[in-house]
Amino acid sequence: MKSSQDELITEINVTPLVDIILVVLIIFLIVAQVVGPQVFQVKLPKAAHGQAAPARPVTVYLDQMGRMALNGYPVQEEGLIRSIKTWVDINPELQVIISGDERVFYGRVVHILDTLKGLGVTRLAIHVQPES
After folding, report:
1. In terms of DSSP bridges, do strands 95-100 and 123-126 run parallel, antiparallel, or are they unpaired?
2. How many domains does the chain have?
């Protein structure tokens, strides 16, 4: 005669698994916040008459190789267009800052500026490093 204590447990306890997944998710979110904005090494050109930008602009990064990032996250041109369209619909006074490496081709910067203008962005700025 078998007692209830001798029966095999046929259920899986998922609580420890959920705990582990949540911890991994939290670690991933923290790492993404720290690593995200440092996608590219951009060497800014210097300008004697540069001004500080107001709070909360959108920044488009262009590195030496012509790769692009939006607010620190890598993006292709199609993704940039979708994101900017959405933000301009929400805020027609959206300011976009182009943070391009001084070694990036001028034509690439002009193309991005033209694309942004075509999307309705009226407040554009170019990020520069003040001369010492």
Report:
1. parallel
2. 2
pLDDT at site 55: 46
Give dist(CA 118, CA 124) in Å, integer: 12
Burial of 80 (0-12, 13-18, 19+ CB in 10 A): buried
pLDDT(82) > 90: yes
Residue type, 58: V
Task: Look at residues 39, 70, 63, 53 and name the one whose alpha carbon lies nearest to residue 130.
Answer: 53
Residue 5 binned pLDDT confidence (cut-offs 50, 70, 90): low
**pTM, entire model:** 0.60
Q: Are 83 and 123 in contact (CB under 8 A)?
A: no
* Beta-strand relationship, 129-130 and 46-47: parallel
Query: Rounded to whole angstroms, how far apart are CA atoms 68 and 76?
Result: 7
Locate 35 and state its tokens.
């690593």
What CATH number does the domain containing 97 carry? 3.30.420.270
